[in-house]
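Section 5.1 Outputs to date
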Amino acid sequence: MTPTIRITPSQGFRLEIEKLSGQKINRCYQCGKCTAGCPAAYTMDLGPRRIMRGIQLGLRDEVLDSTSIWVCLACQTCSARCPLEIDIARVMETLHHLAETEHRIPGDKDVAIFHRLFLQEIKERGHVHELGLGAAFNIQSGHLLLNFDLLPELLRKKRLPLLPVRAKGASQIKAIFERVQALESQSTATEKK
């Protein structure tokens, strides 16, 4: 008699992420090089190493509700440092997309506000107008004077342009956003059938 293999919840989540990302999560042996090199690790509630371990343990809610997957810069440093060549940045992107698909928002509402405003800037202008982004974030987050003390020096040193400028190719970037939105709408409509 052939033994029945049962997939535990931890294996189910890991297998789902492996399928979506194309990465072998179980190969990660927790060396920590990803987190040590991550320029955003200090802002994360769970660093890349802990995210990988959470997937291995099947901690779906803890991983998908973490702020880490929202503040990941997708800079590929973690992937480049991985001795087993796991594309951890791709895993983080996969988790972020899955969290968005499931309409999850990070525990820190400011992260969600910043993320939405940042993408809106990219969509409209092709790049970020830092002064406008900072002002919109301060207003929408309720932190009206956050980093306000830095403004005079940044303006004096001409580090912040006062007026926004559209990047070359901004219309092409906007078209990419619209195409993704159309594909997502099409996918949602297909799922409802």
